[in-house]
Specification:
Helix content: 55-70%
Largest sheet: none
Number of helices: 2
Shape: elongated
Strand content: under 5%
Structural class: mainly alpha
Length: 80
């Protein structure tokens, strides 16, 4: 009978530790997600600063070349 209580107590302790680890992982995921969106926002701001001026000049040379814009391509144009 004592053995069953020990197994039950150990299982409860493991469950509590697993719950604590899951909560920590959730908090870390929230932090990483927030950091990711902040970086995307900052990248957008920096890319906006690198855009050409109205008079045709460029303040700073772009770091990455502008690639083709992704968009909708109808299947009929691909079959030709």
């Amino acid at each position: 009978m004592i053995f069953l209580w020990l197994v039950t107590g150990a299982s409860l302790a493991v469950a509590v530790m697993a719950l604590r680890r899951a909560r920590q992982a959730t908090e870390r995921l929230d932090q990483l997600s927030q950091m990711c969106w902040e970086l995307k926002y900052q990248q957008g701001e920096m890319r906006q600063q690198l855009m050409p001026r109205e008079d045709g000049g460029v303040d700073v040379a772009p770091i990455m070349p502008a690639g083709p814009k992704s968009g909708f391509v109808p299947l009929k144009s691909l079959k030709r």
